[in-house]
Amino acid sequence: MTSAYVYTATRTPFGRFNGALASTRPDDLAASVLTGLLATAPGGDSAAIDEVVWGCANQAGEDNRNVGRMAVLLAGLPVSIPATTVNRLCGSSLDAAIIGSRTVETGDAEVVVVGGVESMTRAPWVLPKPERAFPAGDTTAVSTTLGWRLVNKRMPQEWTVSLGEANEQLQDRFGISRERQDEFAARSHQLAATAWDDGFYDDLVVPAGDLTRDEGIRPGSTPETLAGLKPVFRTDGTITAGNASPLNDGAAAVLLGSEAAATTLGLEPQARIAGRGAYALEPQAFGYAPVEAANIALSRAGIGWDQVGAVELNEAFAVQALACVDAWKVDPDIVNARGGAIAIGHPLGASGARLVGTLAKRLREENQRYGVAAICIGVGQALAVVLENVEASA
User: Fold this and answer.
1) Which of 56, 90, 189, 324 is catalytic?
2) Which residue from 160, 58, 41 is spatially nearest to 111, judged by alpha carbons?
């Protein structure tokens, strides 16, 4: 089997809920980031793309009907390029990267575009279909923006608690204080703002309309300012709007290929997909699932945590991110050193691809050989990928 490599990556800026990207359809967001990705490979021919694997968590509105294929068509790519859309909720685009890398490794493709999109603003309300025509009673429109909806009554109630309550339970389990959560969240904003000011994201982000920078970053965030926010899920809880990821709109994409694809693309590979891991546990404990997903990915890569120089962990909630970092016993300074989802945002289907692109660049800039990208997923799952910096391994 051959190896799969990251050649280039890009994303849109991530917009706030009802923010600058609110009027942009998710299929248009996906098309724009595909166009932006291919512009980073000027020597490549779009006809060389063998497959597009796209992630999206919602798929209940304008992102229905295989939004990956819609993006290919709207971007003006050759109609001969096939595409599929995968749904592993928050992990959808990391799952796309895993599927795409396996496709390259088996020799079924030389070049695969992977990525994902989410417009949480434009996620529709839905009505359950009545069991018989013209029922006499009222019905309730259900928001599809986030979390459980139209829950099967056979599901145990402890599994179907809100995402926030699930992470308050994680706080109960590990005793991670409100102060630590607020410090972690403030760090995320400060590091993200510094990364933008330093130009780190300049070649990783393509404008979306008038939006050129992540919309939710608050450079002035401090633990003290965040301490003034009220808990959201429990009156005596620790999780606030400030130490959890927000609702967002955005898209991200990664160009994967075999070693031989370098000639086709006119690019040099950046990082090798060295290991992959998936893990599942009780749905309400989903925030802790990245611990074992990353351990599995590292085992498959044949390395340990002592060889990891950079980590990109999606910050769904500060408490779950801290629980994972504590379990891994890694230096916190190597985790999300350019900011994380609490500041940058978490448009569900796009976040995994953002992690991969950011990690590949960090490995090069920091001259680290191995890095881990990991993400927790609602309903009790997680995914992780290990990247190996091609330059550092030479």
Assistant:
1) 90
2) 41
CA-to-CA distance for 149 and 165, rounded, in angstroms?
16
Question: Could you tell me the maximum CA-CA distance found in the chain, to the nearest angstrom?
Answer: 71
Q: How many CB atoms lie within 10 A of CB 249?
A: 32
What is the SS3 assignment for 163? helix
Helices then strands (H, E): number in the chain?
A: 12, 12
- pTM of the predicted structure, to 2 decimals: 0.97
Domain parsing of the chain, residue ranges: 5-122+245-388
CA angle 169, 170, 173 (to 5 degrees): 90
The structural architecture, per CATH, of the domain 5-122+245-388 is 3-Layer(aba) Sandwich (3.40)
Joined together, the tokens standing for residue 214 give: 């992540």
CB of 290 closer than 8 Å to CB of 377: no
Residue 324 annotated as catalytic: no
Residue 121, pLDDT score:
98
Per-residue confidence at 393, pLDDT binned at 50, 70, 90? low
Active site residue 56: no
Residue 90 known to be catalytic: yes
